[in-house]
Structures are given as C-alpha cells and as structure tokens.
Amino acid sequence: MEVPPIYVLYGSETGTAEELSERLYRKLIRLGYRVLALPMDEFDAEKLIEPLLCVFICSTTGQGEMPLNMRKIWRFLLRKRLPFNLLDDMQYAVFGCGDTSYVRYNWASKKLDNRLRQLGAQSFCPRGEGDEQHAQGVEGGFAYWCTHLCSALATVKTPSYPALGDSEIIPPSYSISQYISSHKSSEKPLHTRGTVPSTLQQNNRITADNHWQDVRKVVFSIPKSVSWKPGDVAILFPWNDDESVHKFLRCLKWDSFADHLVQVTSNIPEKKAPWLPNPLTVFNFVKYVISIHSIPNRTFFEYAAFFTDNDMHKERLLEFASLEGLDDYYDYVTRPRRTLLETLQEFHSVQIPFEYALDALPIIRGRQYSIANRCNQIEGKLELIIALVKYQTILKEPRQGVCSRWLFNLDQGLSFNIDILPGFLSLPYTVEKPLISVGPGTGVAPLRCLIQERVNLGLKNNVLFFGCRRESMDYLLREDWERLKDTGSLQVYCAFSRDQEKKVYVQHKIQEQEEMIYQLLHEKGGMVCVCGSSGSMPNAVRDAIAGIISKYSGEGISEGYEFLKKLEKEKRFFQETW
CA quadruple 408, 414, 416, 422: dihedral positive or negative? Predict the structure, then answer.
C-alpha cells in the first residue's frame, strides 16, 4: 500500500514561494518523508475529502490577491455551499511570502489560513510570515519557520523511509539524456515560451543620455486579435548572451557536448518539466533556461557541496547553504549581487552533473511589466516603459538586472513570444467619476494605459501627479501628458524633486491641490490610483490624502484614514507598487 504523501502546495507569482517549496520538499525528503510539491492549482481538489497533511506556501500579489497559480483552488474553497466540515481530515501549516512596505502585508496567506480553519482543517504549526524588508529577506523568516515546522511535523507524522545521511544526495527530479546530432550551437531555437507572438518595433531610450537611469519605451507588434485591459501585465522571457553561455559551459566542463541534443523527462509523475527550447541542445538549454546572471539561491550551494572534491570549497559551500550561515550567505551573495556565473568561476572545483541541472541551478523566470497603452486592436501594438537596472556594489563589475542585460542589446525586428496576464485593477474606471492618479517614475506606465482608456471612453475628468528627478532629464512621456492637457482631458501636476534646493515629491503636489482633492473625493465620488515604488511613496501619498480629508471635514486625522479605508471598500482606492 502506497504511503500517503505530505503535500507541499505553493502559490507563486515571481518564483519565491516556488523556490521555498522546493527547498522544503528536499528537507522533508531527507528526513524520510514521502513528499509531493505542486502548484496549488495542479492539486486535485477531489482529494480534499481524504485525510491530508498539507503545507501551503504562498505569496501575496496586487492588493492582497492570490497568485495566478492558486486562484482556481481558491475560488473552489470560497464556494458558499461547501460544508464547514469539508476539511475535518486535513492537518496543515501555512507560510506567507510578503513585504511590510505593502498595505496588505501577507494577506493571501492570512486569508488562506482563515478559510482552511473555517472548513474544519487543523493547523499543526503556527503560520509563518516572511518579510522582504527583513535584513535577510523572506529567506530569513522561512529558514527559522522551517525549524519549527519540522519539530511540529514529527508529532503528527512518522517518516516513511530512513533519513538520508549528510553525504547522500537526493536523486535528480528529471532524467536528462543526450545524444550526438548534427545540430550546431548557433542554430536559433524556436522561442515559444509565451503564448503571444510578438515582434520588437522600438527599443528607445526616453531619458536624457546624461541621466543616471536608462528608461526605455519598448514597443511590440502583436496579433490584432489579442486584447487586454488597464492594469494587465506583459511578461517578457529574457535569454543569456552567447559569450556568457560559453563561459558557463566551460566552468562546468559541459562545453565538450554543447551541441548534443538532449531529452528531458520527469522522474516524478506529478512534476512537470519547465518550458524547454526546440531544438534542445545543451547550448540552447543553458542559453534559454538557466539563469546564469541571477544571484544563486541557497539551493545551489546545497547541491554544489556534493559536487566538489575541494575540501575548503565544500566547507564554504555548506556554510552558505546552512541556517547558521545565512548572514555569510547574505554578505557573499545578496549584498554584492554576485551572479551564478561569477560564483562558479570562484568555486571552480564545482562540477555539477548535467542531469542535476534543473534541480541545482536557477531557471530564467519571466519578468512582469505593466502594459502602458490602451488596447487598440486596429493597431496591434503593445507598449512598455522599462527602467533598465544597473548599479554598483562592492564588486568591480557593475551589476545588471537579468532582463535589463538582455533588453539593452535587443535588436528591432526580432520576433519571440511573450505572455499577457490579467492584473488586479479594481477601480470602476469606465464610469463618470473623477480619477486621481499618482505615478512617480515608471509607475506612470499603467496609469498611461488607464488614462488613455478613459479618454477613449469620453471620460475627461482625469488628474495625474507625476514625479521624477529633473524636468530636463526624466520627465517620462511628457508629450503624451501635454497633448492630453491641451485637449482638456487631463490635469497634470509634476514634482521635479531635484530642480530646486528643497526636494519636492508627489505628496507635496497633492497637498498643494488640497481643495481640489477634497472636492473630487469627498464631494464628487472620485477614485485614486497609486502606482510605483513600494518604498516610502505610497504611505506618504496616503498620509497626504488622509490629512486633506481630515482638514476639510473638521475631523481628527484618524477620520482621514477611516475615509481611505472606506474608499478601499468601495473599490475607489487602488494601489499597485513594486
């Protein structure tokens, strides 16, 4: 008789919850448990009536929303007709990945925990909460929570198999077989990772050449049948440059079979293989699948320690992989943003077997960007506003974002697939109500789409508060705003923070227009949309609006914040920050 597994079920938007789930999966396997790790929506809901032991790991996206790959099962759990003893035979634990700079910190995990309890499930371990703002990120909170989880698990579940020793490695999740072929590494694969065919029309810098930040307007031509709404996002799937791929192949001594075709099959029936290019050569596998310019996670160090014959390297690798070595891992990897390729060049003795590639190495994940133009199916054009990430750390070479490195050298006319996903914009933006939009920097991208859509519908009561450093350097999309202003469709108030001695931000411009803000929100039933950095800006904007409401209503400041809560309940206040 097959031993019932522990289910590790994750809801992940950018990959963090998925990565933590895989780490927990390996930890429990090593302890002798039978474990299955799956996205929540791939779990068979019919099994919910069976005795279950589940660990849920989920992130929060939007304004307290569930990630895309757990929405189906969440909708099922919310059905009103479900009996309140449905999950009486379930024992569970929940961990949330969140960020305290967001108003609704870890709401997804909190809502899931509450709903499981309502349906009769029994929690065997207190809910854990990871915070991106923590000194060690979500990783720090998760590592300590795992210690408590394993102790609690031992009281409700007996391991099914002998625990693995420190020198024993978990078998690979995939079988990767290779065979010699006539394919050359230069042969371009069919890039079908996304579902929407696109061709790059423009990739133009829109900030001044001498400005510190390179912001791009990126335009794609797409099929005219494709549609989207304000707030929706496009997903780009970057790939590695050939020079870096060759360096990586040499590091692991895979260069001798780089042109060989490979076939990948899962060793775990429930586990799906990631997207793979075609033709699938070793070279193309590294170029399009392995994220060689991202920083290596602790999983990499855990595996790398098994594949070195250098005792000094092994000791250091194990230290970075351990709970006790979190601070050292942070100092070596996170703070300087050391890449996987750089780490392999330093730990040159590490030789990861190719069959462990998908277990030990990080894969390239899609990057999400808010769509910056309204859907016009006559044009078949999609626009993004992207700030390229480039900065200096203690390392000699400047750091670049994975997608930024790729996009910087992307040529016009190149065709590849992208994806479009629904966003979470909940404002009733199609009705005749005033809109106050706040978007410093690239936060103005989704607002452009929203404002264009409203103007197209004949709704001209639109206000924009935009912020940047200098009017002459990074006033993004200035021509668009001035054109809409000239037609009477938009009022624009700009905060150029460095153009005067005293810094001026969007919240200051909001305060300057306090009477208008009060009239639009309190008297005319207006709505607010705030987009941009998740740092101090969103709270400063909320404080400014609460202060205005308090002042003009003659109430205390607490009443101002209560008014904001009322706006949120009425879906008249929306915040999308990153």
Answer: positive
Distance CA 574, CA 428 (A): 10
In angstroms, the CA 279 to CA 126 distance is 47
Binding-site residues for FMN: 12-17, 59-62, 97-106, 132
pLDDT of residue 517: 98
Positions in the chain short of pLDDT 70: 1, 180-191
Q: What pLDDT, on a 0 to 100 scale, did the predictor assign at position 191?
A: 64
Q: How far is CA 331 from the centre of its chain?
A: 23
Q: Residue 507, Cβ neighbours under 10 Å: how many?
A: 24
Cα distance between residue 206 and residue 398, in whole Å: 22
Alpha-carbon gap, residue 290 to 287, rounded angstroms:
7
Question: What per-residue confidence (pLDDT) applies to 105?
Answer: 87
483 vs 52: CA distance, rounded Å: 60
**Which residue, among 457, 421, 431, 443, has the nearest Cα to 529 in the 3D structure?**
443
Tell me the binding residues for FAD.
337, 367-370, 401-404, 578
What's the sign of the alpha-carbon dihedral 283, 289, 291, 297? Answer: negative
Q: Give the pLDDT score at 326.
A: 87
Binding residues for NADP(+): 442, 497-498, 503-507
pLDDT at 180: 64
State residue 182's pLDDT score.
56
Residue 5: what pLDDT? 93
Give me the residue label for tokens 């978990």. Answer: 170
Residues belonging to the chain: 578
SS3 of 271-286: the string is CCCCCCCECCEHHHHH
Q: Which residues are annotated as a binding site?
A: 12-17, 59-62, 97-106, 132, 337, 367-370, 401-404, 442, 497-498, 503-507, 578
| Burial of residue 166, with CB atoms counted within 10 A of its CB: 0-12 exposed, 13-18 middle, 19 or more buried | exposed
Q: Smallest Cα–Cα separation from 262: which of 302, 236, 290, 243? A: 290
Helices within 264-372 (DSSP H only)? 282-288, 298-304, 311-321, 326-329, 340-346, 357-360
Which two tokens mark 114?
A: 């509450």
Domains of the chain by start residue, with CATH: 6-153 (3.40.50.360), 174-182+240-360 (1.20.990.10), 196-238+366-421 (2.40.30.10), 435-577 (3.40.50.80)
Determine how β-strand 196-205 pairs with β-strand 415-421.
antiparallel
Residue 168 DSSP code: -
Q: What is the pLDDT of residue 179?
A: 72
- Residue 233 phi, psi (nearest 5): -125, 150
Q: Give me the pLDDT at residue 290, please.
A: 97
